[in-house]
């Protein structure tokens, strides 16, 4: 820890001790869901009017401040359609359902894409919701075909699904990849094909074996020898350093090991979800609010960007995690605190600003200086999802 960070940490701890000494107790306010829905209503209405092409999808902003639109092959293409589905879930206004279908169906051809591990992000976030609402068999078939495509990237010697195909990696398995296992687990249930389940669980077990440090923080990338399955290196691609903990990567782990427990009932996944959550929360305890810095070990903290996307992913995961554990209140209240912070003007955009995204202050890829302190479509997705989970918390198992 450098001197600047040490002084900041000591100062912050002194402030906390002072608050305790004078009997000040922080009050967690409830997230203002109606405020968010009002902003989302105006932002998305404006976006849909200005950008009617439903074969382009909002991702972030460019360095010049203009909106960044992507095609269906981009790993983020499914999040906007998912946001529209959550707008329908949260409001029950049929116009959002209609728009969600428009932005879902243009993604269908990606079901044949065998060059990416991100098919869950692209298709499960959209077609699962479409199928859940409409029960249209064609939507189910899209997801089953996508699951077959994703399974084609599984190497039994590594016992995991390959992430990227680019060099210098030999057979990279990134923490983000865990999120796509939910589609395989669903496909196994709906089709009766146990191979999907086997691949998902095998991948999760390999990840569990190598992903975590002794303090339960995560490595971003595990690189394997595809010929024999041996681990070559643990490193980062989007974090500060190989030895650091990238905040969104830690949030992916919380979220994924929670649904892995839900779908398998294997207690080792629940234990790891709790461990990952406790590490994440121990680090945000050192911040000035519940929103994490982009990497927990950046030596320039606090003079670095936050990551609202990591906060949103974590909040959604924590809400579900809280329903499975004895420490229910702890995780529920921490998720509530995160959501309340994201609902403030510091993070929630004003209508007509932020290029029609909801949240400000996310960090996409800091080492590449891309999408820094910027809106990200997946931040908005997990934010809306978490608010939906919060709204339906008493029946959360019935809406997952």
TrEMBL record:
> From which domain of life does this come?
Bacteria
Molecular function (Gene Ontology), one example:
chondroitin hydrolase activity
Annotated positions binding substrate:
118, 176, 236, 248, 252
| Annotated InterPro entries | 6-hairpin_glycosidase_sf, 6hp_glycosidase-like_sf, Glyco_hydro_88, UG_Glycosaminoglycan_Hydrolase
Q: What's a Pfam family this protein contains?
A: Glyco_hydro_88
Positions annotated as active site in the UniProt record = 118 (nucleophile), 176 (proton donor)
Q: Which UniProt keywords apply?
A: Hydrolase, Signal
Q: Which GO terms describe its biological process?
A: polysaccharide catabolic process
Q: Which SUPFAM superfamilies match?
A: Six-hairpin glycosidases (SSF48208)
Which residues are the signal sequence here?
A: 1-26
Q: Can you tell me which family this protein belongs to?
A: Belongs to the glycosyl hydrolase 88 family.
- What protein name does the entry list? Glucuronyl hydrolase
- Its source organism is Pedobacter hiemivivus
